[in-house]
Amino acid sequence: MAKALVEDKTVIEQDYPQKKNIREDYDDGWFGWFDGFFNWKCCITNPTDEDTEDVMTRIPSIREMSEIIEENDKKSVRITFVGSPESALVKGRNVIVSYPGAHGAGWNFLVKNSLRLGTANFNNPDTIATTCVFLPDENAPGWGDHAGDKQKFQDNEELCHCHHLYNGEVAPWGCLWFQLWLQKTTIAVENGCQLIVVTKRDGSLGRSQQGEVKFLQKYGVNYKVLNIFEFAKAVFPELPRLKPAQHAVQPDYELPKDQRAQEPDLVQPDDELPKDQRAQEPDLD
Fold first, then answer.
1. Hey, which residues does 41 pair with through a beta bridge?
2. Using H for helix, E for strand and C for coil, what is the string for 57-86?
3. Residue-level pLDDT, tens digit, the chain, 285 residues
4. Plot region of 36 (φ>0 → left; ψ -120 to 50 → alpha; else → beta)
5. Strand 129-130 relative to strand 194-199: parallel, antiparallel, unpaired?
6. Are strands 94-98 and 194-199 parallel, antiparallel or unpaired?
7. Burial per residue of 172-186, b for 16 or more beta-carbon CB atoms within 10 angstroms, e otherwise
8. Dihedral angle sign, alpha carbons of residues 63, 69, 72, 77
9. Cβ–Cβ < 8 Å for 238, 246
10. CB-hemisphere CA count at 13 Å for 175?
11. How far apart are CA 159 and CA 215, in angstroms?
């Protein structure tokens, strides 16, 4: 699987909500507005007023590639993303099922620059798909909407996914995203895809990610874990020039004596040595 991730022809497929495959199972009244509004919304929203295509199609510089692995919500480009089409979720394909939202700018680079490498080809085994769903702010269609978890909360159909995702707290951004994620992730599992969870650089998960991974673990789903640095290197082979974060070097004087650098032996002045150990003076004629 690692080999497939490094191939230059790697692309990431994305999808838009389709009436025919969402309404069948989840016609909860929100669909008409969601579908209509999304048809004219750009998939990637750039709050800086900079042209999205210009931002996403240029080849990343070293500085921009560093930003891919940087965790900074304020610098992240807010993205709206609803995953790959179901037709891309085929057996053996690498599928990203969880990604840290804190690395939003990195996700934009990873997605758009991967697409830049070639035209989407569902028959290409090196194509990376994803079931990730991001509805980042109130401008995203579906943001703030909730979806019920009737299977788990049979006694109270008003309860939504927020109650198991956020420990009973109702999230202002809603939980519709989880319903969409669950639908596609289930298909990926059933089709035998190779699932990938991308973590933050230190291996931790975002808040919503915890709910995704909890679901995978609950049902015994196998997945591979890559941190953001490892994933960026896999998509951009030129990234190994950026070294991973190094641990701070412990000062030598704080180490145990047997681990400190060896001090050179000091030469004792000859006149301080016993006479029989001093250098022999030459005999004078």
1. none
2. HCCCCHHHHHHHCCCCHHHCCCECECCCCH
3. 433 333 334 444 444 444 333 333 333 333 333 333 333 333 333 333 343 344 344 445 566 667 667 776 655 566 667 788 888 888 888 888 998 878 877 777 656 644 443 344 445 666 678 888 878 788 888 888 888 755 554 455 567 888 888 887 888 888 888 988 999 999 999 999 999 999 998 889 988 889 899 989 988 999 999 998 887 777 665 544 444 444 333 333 344 555 444 443 434 555 556 666 665 554 544
4. alpha
5. unpaired
6. parallel
7. ebbbbbbbbbbbbbe
8. positive
9. no
10. 24
11. 18
One-letter amino acid at 93 equals R
**Sequence-ordered list of residues with C-beta below 8 angstroms from that of 233, at least 6 positions apart, any chain:** 239, 240
Closest listed residue to residue 71, CA positions, set 258, 253, 260, 199: 199
132 contacts 88 by C-beta, under 8 angstroms: no
Backbone angles phi, psi at 79, to 5 degrees: -115, 145
User: In angstroms, rounded to a whole number, what is the distance separating the alpha carbons of residues 106 and 118?
Assistant: 19
Give 152's contacts (C-beta < 8 A, 6+ positions apart): 164
